Amino acid sequence: MKDAFGAPQSLLVLGGTSEIGLATARRLIARRTRTVRLAGRPSPALTAAADSLRALGADVRTVPFDALDTASHEEALGKVFAEGDVDMVLLAFGVFGDQARDESDPVAAARVAQTNYTGAVSAGLVCAGALQAQGHGSLVVLSSVAGERARRADFIYGSSKAGLDVFAQGLGEALHGTGVHVMVVRPGSVRSKATAGLAEAPLATTPEAVAGAIELGLRRRSETVWVPGSLRMVMAAVRHVPRPLFRRLPV
């Protein structure tokens, strides 16, 4: 159960090598989270991530998990919940893909969609059912501002995040009143290894800033969190810019 500060005692991160996921885990461990499960494909990076969190004093284990293998989700994630209650699930996996390449490679484009949307729908529903069965918990879903409006530069990735965002919002409505809290997090461009070398977008943020916003959102029982917060007003305006003008904007 959550402590007096609203921090979860136990955390499951889907996407165990995610920089945002690990930044969030570090922040919550400092707030008394004691049990962490990192779910992802077995790899040296996943092992190193677990070791780094153990050094902070948490009980950390890795869980074999493949977003694309949806048939395995119920069994793989069910084992985690069978060990005991999970106070928070952070759905943090996803891939950017390569827009220029993926436009001419439908198989690669489909992989982006299957990872970011289909895999997330499957894992999200499995975790939602388990949280509902235990009667409490938070499901935090990492969406993206890229899903707010189609852009020429990243519409394959953006479309997958738009689908995920709507799914998570609807799931929150379905779970309203059950004791399960669903929170959608919409960061702007995040400075990370995945974006290294790319031109920095306006209002770029960091994994640590997103982690801080997630912690605050948990305390407030927020349903939607923008990072940075100013993006809420920016995107409210961007959504209504006429398409001919939008095409001319440097976004």
From TrEMBL:
Pfam families per UniProt: adh_short
Enzyme Commission number: 1.1.1.333
Domain of life: Bacteria
Keywords of the record: Oxidoreductase
GO molecular function, one term: oxidoreductase activity
Record-given protein name: Decaprenylphospho-beta-D-erythro-pentofuranosid-2-ulose 2-reductase
Membrane spanning stretches: none
Homology family: Belongs to the short-chain dehydrogenases/reductases (SDR) family.
PANTHER family: 5-KETO-D-GLUCONATE 5-REDUCTASE, DECAPRENYLPHOSPHORYL-2-KETO-BETA-D-ERYTHRO-PENTOSE REDUCTASE
